[in-house]
Every structure is written in C-alpha cells, then in structure tokens.
Amino acid sequence: MLIVDDFPLARAGIASVLAADPAIRVVGEAENAAEALERARELEPDVVLLDLRLPDGGGPELIRALLAEAPGVNVLVLTAVEKIDTVGEVTDAGAAGYVTKRVTAANLRRAVLTVRRGGTAFDSAESADLLESHPEISPDDAPAGEERLTARQTEVLALVAAGASDVEIATRLSLSPRTVQNHLAAIRAKTGLKRRSQLANWAIKHAS
C-alpha cells in the first residue's frame, strides 16, 4: 500500500501501526498530490491511504486522478476532516473508505484490509458522530438501532426500488458504477439486508 501524507512523522507513525499486521505491506510514501500520482503509477499499490489536505491540492480531484492513473487501486481516506459533506464528496469520487485520525490502530488496520478486499470501510464511531451532528441528511423514519442513510444513499436506494441496475443508477446520478457499488455496500451494512430484492422492499416500505 501507499501512504500519502505531507508530514513525515505522520507517515512514519502510520507505517509503524500498519506494520503490526503481517498481511499489510507498505510499498511507498508520498508527501503531496503530484508525488502520490507518480508513486501510484510506478508502484501499482492495492491501497492508497490518503490524507485529504496536501500542499498542492488533493481531495476528490486527487481521488479521481488516482483511480484513473491506477485503475486497480482502492483509496482509503485517513483525515482530520470531520465533515459529513466531505464524506459524501470523497465517496462520490470513488473512495472505498473514510476514517478520521481519531481511529484506533486496530480499526485502521481492519479498514485497510477491508478496502484491499474490495469492501468499504467507514469508522463506525466517527460516522455515527458525523451523522448525528447532521440529521438533515438522513431520513427521519430510519429504523431504530440502524445507522441512518445519507442523502446520496437514499437516492441510490430509491433507484434500486425502481428496478435500476448499478450501471443505470450510475448514469442517472453521474457516478461511476464502482461508486454505486460502494454506496450499496454501505447501505447493506447499515440496514443488515443483503439481497437486492430485500433492499427494494425496504426502500418501498420506508418511502410510504
């Protein structure tokens, strides 16, 4: 994996934390967006652990560029930014996960391995805090005990209920099919439902 952060001490600390799991191998580091793109092309890492704030830019634009330059890569955001809008922006750009720098060492390693396998990883405690502080993005009728859906996830779910395929949803919402799949994985994790038919029925029920 490739670690992208503009602070050398932060990169060293992250590398040390990840080294505790023999299944994770750090193949390189980068301190800015330009270097991140160069290293991603050169090293072809399976995961890029990305800080959003870099001296020469970053954020959703860099995520899109990384995915274009290294199609096999999975981007996991590790940031001090705790804004729900930012979560939506990086997810729409194609990031497979978003954890804040308050994440525990064990949860960070778990997130890296999950993203590497093609899953999605959102630190549950931090996501819950963000959603709670921004209730306007979630439907009021979300079931008790389940994490509420974001506005984008609600849109994706509504199109699932209408019978749209992942490609059709991607076209309607101007997203990539991969991003739609990321949203669906997050919806499944929040609702506990696995089959598409179950998601469609759940959407219809809660829209009525």
Q: Largest sheet at a glance?
A: 6 strands, parallel
Poorly predicted sequence stretches spanning 5 or more consecutive residues: 125-146
Return the string of H and E elements: EHEHEHEHEHEHHHHH
For the termini, the CA-CA separation is 45 Å
What is the radius of gyration computed over CA atoms, rounded to a whole number of angstroms?
17 Å
* % residues in beta strands: 5-15%
Count every helix, treating DSSP H or I runs of 4 or more residues as helices.
10
Structural class: alpha/beta
Tell me roughly what share of residues is in helical segments.
40-55%
Shape: globular
Number of strands: 6
Mean pLDDT: 83
Question: Regarding quaternary structure, how should these chains be classified?
Answer: single chain
Order of strands, main sheet, comes to 2-1-3-4-5-6
Characterise the protein shown here.
With 208 residues, the chain is of the alpha/beta class. The protein has helices at 8-18, 33-43, 59-69, 84-93, 105-116, 124-133, 151-161, 166-173, 177-191, 196-207; strands spanning 2-4, 28-30, 47-50, 74-79, 97-100, 121-122. It has a six-stranded parallel beta sheet, with helices on both faces. α1 (8-18) links the parallel β1 (2-4) and β2 (28-30). α2 (33-43) runs parallel beside α3, α3 (59-69) packs parallel to α4 (84-93) and α8 (166-173) packs across α9 (177-191). The model is unreliable at 125-146 (pLDDT under 50).
Features of this protein?
208 residues, alpha/beta, six-stranded parallel beta sheet, 10 helices, globular
Describe the structure concisely for a colleague.
The protein contains 10 helices and 6 strands, in the order βαβαβαβαβαβααααα.
